[in-house]
TrEMBL record:
Belongs to the ABC transporter superfamily. The keyword Cytoplasm does not apply. This is Energy-coupling factor ABC transporter ATP-binding protein. Residues 4-49 form the ABC transporter domain. Keywords: ATP-binding, Nucleotide-binding, Transport. GO terms for molecular function: ATP binding. It comes from Streptomyces iconiensis. The keyword Nucleotide-binding applies.
């Protein structure tokens, strides 16, 4: 139990009455309670609502840890940046119907599907697509992609590559 509470940032609250926890802490406690049960499948609806980025990462890291131990974790979320970073599979739905089922890269690359669901891809993916960097989903992906482009680009003031073609 202590290890799971630590995963969600509630270490030291083992004896705290939930009434005395903040709303965000109670939400993390509910997720920890679900994980402690050791179910083969955990369905978590909007786990990061009301959490700051650091707490959101703790929750999603805890869910990833649960998944790494051979369990299925289904997350319902509208936070596409976190979905892009943590999900291995995305199911885009509208009015109870599956529109697309695939990896985050596959789903977020299908703009027409996203338009039907009123979901926008992560901002990093949108920026990278505008810059001609396909397959970028997260800020870390974007930084790596832009670093690769910049290391291949000639440095300012360097002579342009010589073109030996006959014009």
């Amino acid at each position: 139990m202590s290890a799971t509470l630590e995963l969600v940032g509630l270490e030291g609250h083992e004896e705290t009455n939930p009434v005395h926890l903040s709303r965000g802490e109670r939400q993390r406690l509910a997720i920890a309670s679900t994980l402690i049960m050791g179910c083969d499948v955990a369905v978590i609806d909007e786990p990061t609502t009301g959490q700051d980025r650091a707490e959101s990462r703790k929750i999603l890291d805890a869910l990833a840890h649960h998944h790494a131990h051979g369990r299925t974790v289904v997350i319902i979320s509208h936070d596409m940046a976190l979905v892009a970073e943590y999900a291995t599979r995305v199911i885009a739905m509208r009015q109870g119907h599956v529109l697309m089922d695939g990896t985050p890269a596959e789903v977020f690359s299908r703009r027409e599907v996203l338009q039907e669901t009123n979901i926008r891809p992560p901002q990093a993916a949108v920026l990278a697509a505008e810059l001609g960097l396909p397959g970028v989903l997260t800020v870390d992906d974007a930084v790596r992609g832009m670093s690769d482009v910049l290391t291949r680009a000639p440095s300012p003031g360097a002579p342009a590559p010589h073109d030996d073609r006959v014009h």
